[in-house]
UniProtKB/TrEMBL annotation, chains A, B:
PANTHER family linked: GLUTATHIONE S-TRANSFERASE T1-RELATED
Keyword Transferase: yes
Protein family according to the UniProt entry: Belongs to the GST superfamily. Theta family.
Pfam family, one: GST_N
Catalytic activity, EC: 2.5.1.18
Domain GST C-terminal: 89-232
Enzyme class: transferase
Record has Transferase as a keyword: yes
Chain residue ranges for the region called Disordered: 219-250
Organism of derivation: Bruguiera gymnorhiza (Burma mangrove)
Protein name: glutathione transferase
Alphabetic keyword roster: Detoxification, Transferase
Gene3D superfamilies per the UniProt record, alphabetical: 1.20.1050.10, Glutaredoxin
Length: 250, 250
């Protein structure tokens, strides 16, 4: 029976799982769980994931949720997946776990906090919260610095000094792509100072094309829609004081 | 060379790693990184973990941080560790990853938020924040419900319906033990409605004794010290409205 992936491409962990499947030629059926329609809370989906979150998978009779757990499972369960995505080597694998664990409490919290409180909230029926957005920005900025000084240390193009991407690159880059939703000036303020992060995002895009662009199409469309709703010059919920000079555009 | 564990027993993930080593007879040297003295930010410790967090390990030339990554590494690297702690079975292992990933964003955020904002803050030079404590309490309560209805579903004594504990039981129970720091009425209000959670905590204690009590001694001492500082009747930062009747004491 074909693997089923329950996801909404509006969610970054959903995109990470779909991207991983596509890049590795895993045969799967994508079943949309529409977050805008709150389908993740439907009784049908609660049978798949009682936590009411996407993504989730069903592989035969086996059900699983949490994107990192899914990525690890897929890398192990499908023999065609190349070793570099989730190396069998004990030490390399441990370091990938370390990045993935770190991601939860730092990069993801910062990224979700800023996107939700600074821009996306109203589309989901939540108010903008400039104070929460500012706190999230602080966490996100320090997380980006840590990615640069710790995880991207060395000469490799990918996390942990590797020359080939792992599931950690997929997860973290898909998270950072969510910043596309922000106004360009805000996104550039955040990513501008982090040259190495920008190069790494580009390397991950390149390594996973053409699937990367296809999987992120929904995101670019959402960005366009949001930009039309808030014309240039209109203030977002974020304190876009643009303290840091722009070095480059993403 | 002996495994080095850099930890402070005041931190719940530190206790989880130390407890795991002790229960499994792993020969290790415990090196205290005093959080009260902010030693986690010292240049010496930053050489071990540039993120400035405990626990961290050094095994020969290999350095690792993030407690879940460490627990998985230890379970794999030390042949004496019984399979039930981190089963080789692909499906069982995937479920354990799912619990551990879930823990980061739900149980841990709720638990840390309530302890820090509702009680411990001043001891660390931070103000009490009743609003943040109330938000954390909401997250913690819903996490406890999910543990009961999802992770403790079935008849097994441990998470995922198992009859033997895994690294997930160690991590989550050590997290919940931090609630000992709260005033008894607050802790009972939180845990009182969750009978199955209470039984599971007891089962995990029992399965890991006498090490469990020894490793948590620091916590009980800290609790006693805090209780002396705030005599009975004095209001903590928490809104202890005691809406829920007490079913049992922990």
């Amino acid at each position: 029976m074909k693997l089923k992936v329950f996801a909404d491409r509006k969610s970054q962990p959903s995109r990470a799982v779909i991207l991983f499947c596509k890049v590795n030629g895993i045969d799967f059926e994508e079943i949309k769980v529409d977050l805008m329609q709150k389908k993740q809370f439907s009784p049908e989906f609660k049978e798949i994931n009682p936590m009411g979150k996407v993504p989730a998978i069903v592989d035969g009779r086996f059900k699983l949720f949490e994107s990192h757990a899914i990525l690890i499972y897929l890398a192990c369960a499908f023999p065609g997946v190349a070793d570099h995505w989730y190396p069998a080597d004990l030490f390399k694998r441990a370091k990938i776990h370390s990045v993935l664990d770190w991601h939860h409490s730092y990069l993801r919290r910062g990224s979700v906090g800023i996107v939700l409180n600074g821009k996306l909230g109203p589309a989901l029926g939540l108010p903008l919260n400039p104070q929460a957005a500012a706190e999230a920005e602080k966490l996100l900025s320090s997380s980006l610095s840590k990615i640069e000084s710790v995880w991207l240390k060395g000469s490799g193009k990918f996390l942990l000094g590797s020359n080939q991407p792992s599931i950690a690159d997929i997860s973290l880059v898909c998270e950072l792509m969510q910043l596309e939703i922000l106004d360009d000036k805000d996104r550039n303020r955040l990513l501008g100072p982090h040259k190495k992060v920008q190069q790494w995002i580009e390397s991950t895009k390149k390594a996973t094309r053409p699937h990367f662009d296809e999987v992120h199409k929904t995101l670019y469309e959402a960005k366009e829609k949001l930009q039309k709703q808030s014309p240039v010059g209109e203030d977002s919920g974020m304190k876009s004081s643009l303290k840091t000079p722009l070095h480059s555009k993403m």
